[in-house]
From TrEMBL:
GO terms for cellular component: cytoplasm. HAMAP family: NAD_kinase (MF_00361). This is NAD kinase. The gene is nadK. Gene3D superfamilies: Probable inorganic polyphosphate/atp-NAD kinase, domain 1 (3.40.50.10330), Probable inorganic polyphosphate/atp-NAD kinase, domain 2 (2.60.200.30). Keywords: ATP-binding, Cytoplasm, Kinase, NAD, NADP, Nucleotide-binding, Transferase. NAD(+) binds at D62, G63, N130, E131, R158, D160, T171, G172, Y173, N174, L175, S176, L195, Q228. GO terms for molecular function: ATP binding; metal ion binding; NAD+ kinase activity.
Length: 266
């Protein structure tokens, strides 16, 4: 079988060791299914700890994929098997598993590099795969957000919140708030206002190794990371830059804007 060639996608290698993650609710509600998954994958690969694996396999939905990917060792590729709803960041369905096994064993897949974001607030730092969502912490007057790029002010406007999204996350909160969808491998981010009092458009910004975005709020904020971690920082200024770590996603097929197609079909 020919190798998969996708622009921006590194050809894969034959896999013999995987790290397997199955969503807890699947283990609890469907023990037979969980056993079948382990039997199928364990019969073809050695199931090992992440530090010894060549590929991680996440079985669940987008939330499971994000939680697993956040804890993986640097540069370990991850393949998502969707047993949730939308599956925007996953690449296979349970019925595809025999094909998945063969493709991993043969090395007929590719690994796509995607950016992650790092946010610094005072002395703390956080990493996001999808997005950072800055939201006002207290009910009251609408706060102002001042957005700067490389120290140049882009705007200072009143709004409920602000979404800073990666290309991977551009089909999530960002799209719901009216932001554009970016190609998965783009080296850019999108900053999307949430309920601004005046018309403020989303802005797409290139984010290479150097540039960073600074956001200053006029009142205390809550920072939501990938929709899974909520933080109430003391500081009102946040700095966002491209993380030095990558998200490495296993791709089995060449479908551009796959995350958009899945979002629209869900």
């Amino acid at each position: 079988m020919a190798r998969v060639h996708v622009a921006g996608c590194e050809p894969g290698r034959p896999v013999s060791r995987i790290a397997l993650y199955v969503k807890d609710s699947i283990r609890e509600r469907s023990p037979d299914l969980h056993g079948s998954l382990v039997k199928l994958l364990g019969g073809s690969f050695e199931i090992v700890e992440p530090g010894k694996a060549e590929v991680a396999v996440s079985v669940g939905g987008d939330g499971t994929f994000l939680a697993v990917a956040r804890e993986l060792p640097e540069d370990l590729p991850i393949l998502g098997v969707n047993m949730g709803r939308r599956g925007a960041v996953t690449d296979a369905l349970p019925e595809d598993l025999p094909i998945v096994v063969r493709r991993l064993m043969d090395g007929t897949y590719c690994v796509e590099d995607r950016i992650k974001l790092e946010a610094s607030i005072a002395s703390e730092s956080y990493e996001a795969i999808n997005e950072f969502y800055l939201n006002r912490r207290h009910v009251g007057s609408t706060p102002s957000y001042t957005v700067r790029y490389n120290s140049d002010e882009l705007y200072s406007e009143r709004m409920d919140g602000l979404i800073i999204s990666t290309p991977t996350g551009s089909t999530g909160y960002n799209l719901s708030a009216g932001g554009p969808v970016l190609p998965e491998t783009a080296r850019s981010i999108v900053i999307t206002p949430v309920l601004p009092l005046t018309k403020v458009p989303p802005v797409v910004i290139p984010l290479d190794d150097g540039p960073e975005v600074e956001v200053e709020s006029s009142s205390p904020i809550t920072l939501l990371v990938d929709g899974q971690l909520s933080v109430d920082p003391d500081a009102k200024i946040i700095h966002v830059r491209q993380s030095k770590y990558r998200l490495r996603v296993v791709r089995l097929r060449q479908i551009h804007f796959q995350h958009l197609r899945k979002t629209l079909c869900s």
